[in-house]
Design brief:
There is one protein chain. By secondary structure, the chain is of the alpha+beta class. It contains six helices and twelve strands. A twelve-stranded mixed beta sheet has the order 1-2-3-4-5-12-6-11-10-9-8-7, sandwiched between helices. The longest helix is centred in the last third of the chain and has 16 residues.
Length: 243
């Protein structure tokens, strides 16, 4: 297998026609993230062995649709968690306050600082994860909430095939309760409409009632679709911490 790149940054893995990409899950966890672009369970197992060695711990899949799960299970992965998919039709929405802005050239270091404050160590994305999310659709922007130049929160959104994907919504804990998340979702819908999207889509943990309540207030509804995050090997999240 050919390895290109430097861990813990993005590493490309190749064997014949098979392709994958991996990186550190985040700077706070002793775990790796692996994406399979194409290949069979044999290649995936070989790639997983390399990533596990580099990470010094378990390897996690992306959030997978049910149709993509089987090849991972054949490579020894087991389900770690599920995410619910929610969606809503795009409607006309007021732009909101002028301190909510949109950029196609975000400061990923600033985003990571907010992300680290907003989420626990497992869900913190790190700069690598944020860059991956930003590049996951052909067109992406970040909606930012700033006051006096300080980033208080952000929403990362992307457009593909007539849909707008809400990749991430994060608010610094010191700025919660001020309506920032709602204002950023409204501005995200403004951008989605201008981009020509008919639908907005996101995923959320089933037990995250606060986020689910926010999304429902903005017109998002549960779908029958679930996404699956798998781990190799299945293990307790507490054992992955490096801090």
């Amino acid at each position: 297998m050919q390895i290109d790149g430097n861990w813990p940054g993005e590493v490309l893995l190749r064997r014949g026609w098979a392709r994958g990409a991996a990186r550190q899950w985040n700077p706070l966890m002793r775990a790796g993230s692996l994406r399979l672009h194409r290949g069979n369970s044999s290649f995936l197992a070989e790639a997983t062995e390399w990533v596990a060695g580099a990470a010094g711990g378990p390897v996690l899949s992306p959030a997978l649709y049910p149709s993509a799960v089987r090849v991972w299970e054949r490579s020894g992965y087991q389900e770690l968690l599920r995410l619910n998919v929610m969606e809503k039709p795009v409607r006309a929405t007021p732009e909101g306050p002028d301190w909510i802005t949109t950029t196609a050239d975000p400061d990923f270091a600033a985003l990571e600082a907010v992300d680290r404050a907003a989420f626990d160590r497992f869900w913190h994305m790190g700069s690598g994860g944020l860059v991956d999310a930003f590049r996951s659709t052909p067109r992406s922007v970040v909606v930012e909430a700033r006051r006096d130049g300080t980033l208080l929160g952000y929403a990362m959104i992307g457009h593909q095939a007539g849909a707008c994907f809400v990749q991430r919504v994060a608010v610094d804990p010191t700025s919660r309760g001020q309506g920032l998340a709602s204002a950023m979702l409204n501005r995200s819908e403004v951008w989605a409409r201008k981009a020509g999207a008919a639908t907005m889509i996101l995923n959320v943990r089933p037990d995250n009632e606060q986020a689910r309540s926010l999304y429902k207030r903005h017109g998002f509804n549960d779908t029958v679709t679930t996404l699956h995050v798998l781990s190799f090997p299945a293990d307790s999240l507490s054992s992955w911490s490096v801090s």
